[in-house]
Specification:
globular; 4-stranded antiparallel sheet; about 5% helix; single chain
């Protein structure tokens, strides 16, 4: 059973920073590219950043220059460093494979709230 456990969210003021972590069990981490997704209230879940096994990264335009995705293959963990946070970054953040794979369930996510 593959498990994804996200952590590191919280309440932060605009302009602040957070670092999210995602621990992945099983063999998926060593095989697949991983990504961070987010879902804001009333909106569809979107992919915001991804990283291949070799470390190649991609970002959606709205977070380029502010977010950095990284992975530690030895720890089966993927990170998302978020700087210069904006209210529109408020969402539940999830990690998962990229692309999504049948049989890999979503974790509980971690809430990020950007507000003064």
């Amino acid at each position: 059973q593959v498990q994804l456990v996200e952590s590191g969210g919280g309440l932060v003021q605009p302009g602040g920073s957070l670092r999210l972590s995602c621990a992945a069990s099983g063999t998926i981490f060593s095989i697949f590219a991983m990504g961070w997704y987010r879902q804001a209230p009333g909106k569809q879940r979107e992919l915001v950043a991804s990283i291949t096994r070799g470390g190649t990264t991609t970002y959606t335009d709205s977070v380029k220059g502010r977010f950095t995705i990284s992975r530690d293959n030895a720890k089966n963990t993927v990170y998302l460093q978020m700087n210069s946070l904006k209210p529109e970054d408020t969402a539940v953040y999830y990690c998962n494979t990229v692309p999504l794979r049948v049989g890999v369930k979503w974790g509980q996510g971690t809430q990020v709230t950007v507000s003064s």
